[in-house]
Amino acid sequence: MIKPLSPTDAAARLDEWWSPRVLAEVDDAYVKVARVQGTLAWHSHADEDELFYVLKGALRIELEDGVVELGEGQMCVVPKGVRHNPVAEQECHLLLIERKSTRHTGDEVTALTRSIGEQRRPL
């Protein structure tokens, strides 16, 4: 049965920083929500673009050639192969759209890296 979803409510229920959860699937992509604060890690995704949409708060995405500042209701797409480092000075809630093959922190593995199995856990 098709049910309405609230990404804003789902993100607010999360209890871990930088631990995205799959909210829905659209063809070969996942729609995820995350609750973030602090710094994730410098990384890239060789074969996948990554869409960031800010539901609440603000996000800074550091790039090798600049910075993208996002506020509530704003989004950007980090193209495949572009090294980036997401940073949230204060609590921030995100909606992410990524292909199912996208690894959380690309080839970088840190204590914050989450497997797709972890990301698919029920909210």
Short description:
The chain is mostly beta strands. The chain is built from two helices and seven strands.
Question: How much helicity do the residues have?
Answer: under 10%
What are the segments in which pLDDT stays under 50 over at least 5 consecutive residues?
none
| Helix-strand makeup class | mainly beta
Strand residues, percent:
over 45%
Helix count from the secondary structure assignment: 2
* Overall mean confidence score, pLDDT: 96
**Whole-number radius of gyration?**
13 Å
Task: State the separation between the terminal residues, measured CA to CA.
Answer: 18 Å
Order of helices and strands: HEEEEEEEH
How many beta-strand segments?
7
Q: State the shape.
A: globular
Strand count, sense and barrel status of the largest sheet are:
7 strands, antiparallel
Secondary-structure map:
Elements: H1 7-13, E1 21-26, E2 29-39, E3 50-56, E4 58-63, E5 66-71, E6 75-78, E7 84-99, H2 116-119
Antiparallel strand pairs: 1-2, 2-7, 3-6, 3-7, 4-5, 4-7
Describe the 3D structure.
The protein is mainly beta and 123 residues long. The radius of gyration is 13 Å and the shape is globular. The two termini are 18 Å apart. The longest helix is centred in the N-terminal third of the chain and has 7 residues, at 7-13. The chain has two helices and seven strands.
